[in-house]
Amino acid sequence: MTLTGDLVHLRALEPEDADAFWRWHHDPEAMRWMTTSYPESLAQLRKRFVDLPPNSYERCSFAITTTAESRLIGCVVLRDATPEVGRATLDIYLGEKDTWNKGYATEALRLLCRWAFNDMRLTAIELTVVADNDPARHLYRKLGFVEEGRRRESFRRDGQLHDAIIMSLLAREFID
Ligand SMILES: CC(C)(COP(=O)(O)OP(=O)(O)OC[C@H]1O[C@@H](n2cnc3c(N)ncnc32)[C@H](O)[C@@H]1OP(=O)(O)O)[C@@H](O)C(=O)NCCC(=O)NCCS
């Protein structure tokens, strides 16, 4: 199953995608507002991509590729879905910085939310965004996400603490 739009295509991750992810993980600008963990070697990351579990209701990861050139540019994940409520958590990033501000993430999120609400039958999608990440907050608001709360000083980068904003989108609020 793939999701196709005019600008981007969402497909399952492949082992061959590992090297691009490793490069993105070492780009301080792309990772600036992302939660990062301890260093992972290219060999470890490649192995992880070979052993990826199948996508499922609980966790579904998509590679974002350009429709025109099938170029891998980023990743979007829906995780921790709860069947009782139908709510899942979203993460997105575009590792290829030359593709920023061209509408790719807007379309990727529209494709994903449409599928999640119509086919997965989710009722809500939530996410956490660092308060200083203005482009991401603008993007989420544009799709209808609203702020639910603030985790004060819960994100640390380069020794500085930043607030994180919790946002959610109810199915009926989605601006498609
Ligand atoms: C955030 C991110 C996913 C956006 O992807 P993108 O493809 O550039 O997004 P789009 O082009 O679809 O939309 C970006 C919007 O932000 C706006 N924007 C850009 N810089 C901005 C700023 N400093 N302040 C406010 N809005 C800004 C753009 O104008 C555009 O809005 P518009 O369509 O109304 O004009 C991408 O920049 C990214 O991956 N960043 C690094 C990782 C990250 O921060 N991920 C999110 C973690 S919560």
Using only C-alpha atoms, the radius of gyration works out to 16 Å
Distinct helical segment count: 4
How many domain modules?
Answer: 1
The CATH homologous superfamily is named Gcn5-related N-acetyltransferase (GNAT)
CATH class: Alpha Beta
Which strand order do you get reading across the main beta sheet? 1-2-3-4-5-6-8-7
CATH architectural label: 3-Layer(aba) Sandwich
Bound molecules: coenzyme A
Number of strands: 8
Average pLDDT, to the nearest integer? 97
Tell me about this structure.
This protein has helices at residues 18-25, 42-50, 104-118, 134-143, and strands at residues 3-4, 8-11, 59-66, 72-82, 87-94, 124-130, 146-157, 160-170. It has 176 residues and is of the alpha+beta class. It has a single domain, classed as Aminopeptidase (3-Layer(aba) Sandwich), CATH 3.40.630. The longest helix is centred in the middle third of the chain and has 15 residues, at 104-118. The protein is globular and about 40 Å long. The structure holds coenzyme A. The site of coenzyme A (COA) has 22 residues, from strand 5, helix 3 and helix 4.
